[in-house]
Amino acid sequence: MALTGKQASSSLAATGGELSAEQWRDSLRRRRWRKYFPMACGVVLVLLMLLMAALAPWLAPLSPSAQFSEHVLKGPGAGGKHLLGTDEFGRDLLSRVIWGARVSLQVGLAAVVVGFICGVPLGIMAGFLGGKVEMGIMRLTDMLMAFPTLLLALIIVAALGGSLFNEILAIGIALTPNFVRLSRGLALTIRENDYIMAARALGCTQVRIMFRHILPNTLSTLVVIATLDIASAIRTEAGLSFLGLGVPPPTPSWGNILSEGRQYIKCCSWLTTYSGLAIMLAVLALQSDGGCTTRPARSAAAGGVKSVVSGQ
């Protein structure tokens, strides 16, 4: 937490050559504030959105599918009970945004869990076993990574059909290569440590070494990356729903609310504004949390990350 040379010189000049303890404490507080404030804001936003999704039946003022024919395409505050306005069917937009948080956050969390469960064991096997096993796993991973995440998810959903389960499965498969490459890079680094060699000398099986000794030491980095991937999964879900391949109507999600309002964007901008803001805030909060904790995770597994980046 030392000050830079220029900061120290200016501080010493201002105090006649001596830096008081109070000034040191102020400098330390400012540094901590700049470091942790974005992460704290992100945590608060994520918690609020999780609470909103969990308490949707009690927070939503109206049913998300209830139609009010007398209030079609009315702006915010219409009728004294539609705080964010209504859509083309007279449905309350605030209720739909609150209920849409359930689908969007559920898909984001579940898709990352699917990608984690599928990708991490394969990556650890590739990094620890090497040889033909590594060759086969990594070539399959390279094939999947040739497609952008949204395009790959789009192909899978188009083949399986639009539903909540298929959307989670498609996005999870699209995120799997990220976990495979990262966990492989971490395994390549960890397998050279002394305690792994000691476990081999004691006669531990390869399965035990991989999942008892290597896996626990990769979790801190993998959880940080998973946080960032939740944001990516929410964006992908919004993209699929916007294209009409997400959760079928009338179930609300932020993506299909955005899609339904695009044709009225010139005259009724509130239809797309609030769902778009919800997506933006969710992604921003998750990126802030993950970004603030990525640096220590990278330092803890620098070799593994370098291996992932180089693709070796």
Notes on the structure:
With 312 residues, the protein is mostly helical. The protein has a domain at 100-310: MetI-like fold (Orthogonal Bundle), CATH 1.10.3720.10. It is 74% helix and 0% strand. It has twelve helices and no strands. It has helices spanning 5-14, 21-54, 56-59, 93-129, 131-145, 149-160, 164-190, 194-201, 206-242, 254-261, 270-300, 302-310. Helix 5 (131-145) packs across helix 7 and helix 9 (206-242) packs parallel to helix 10 (254-261). The protein is globular. The two termini are 36 Å apart. Mean pLDDT is 82; it is low at 1-6, 11-17 and 296-312.
Low-confidence parts, pLDDT < 50 over ≥5 residues? 1-6, 11-17, 296-312
Supply the CATH class of the domain at 100-310.
Mainly Alpha
Calculate Rg over CA atoms. 25 Å
The CATH H-level superfamily of the domain at 100-310 is: MetI-like
Element string (H = helix, E = strand): HHHHHHHHHHHH
Number of helical runs?
12
Main beta sheet strand tally, sense and closure: none
Draw up the topology in text:
Elements: H1 5-14, H2 21-54, H3 56-59, H4 93-129, H5 131-145, H6 149-160, H7 164-190, H8 194-201, H9 206-242, H10 254-261, H11 270-300, H12 302-310
Helix pairs in contact: 2-4, 2-11, 4-5, 4-7, 4-9, 4-11, 5-7, 6-7, 7-9, 7-12, 8-9, 9-10, 9-11, 10-11
Could you give a short description of this structure?
The protein has 312 residues and is mainly alpha-helical.
Main traits of this protein?
74% helix; disordered N terminus; 12 helices; 312 residues; MetI-like fold; mainly alpha; disordered C terminus
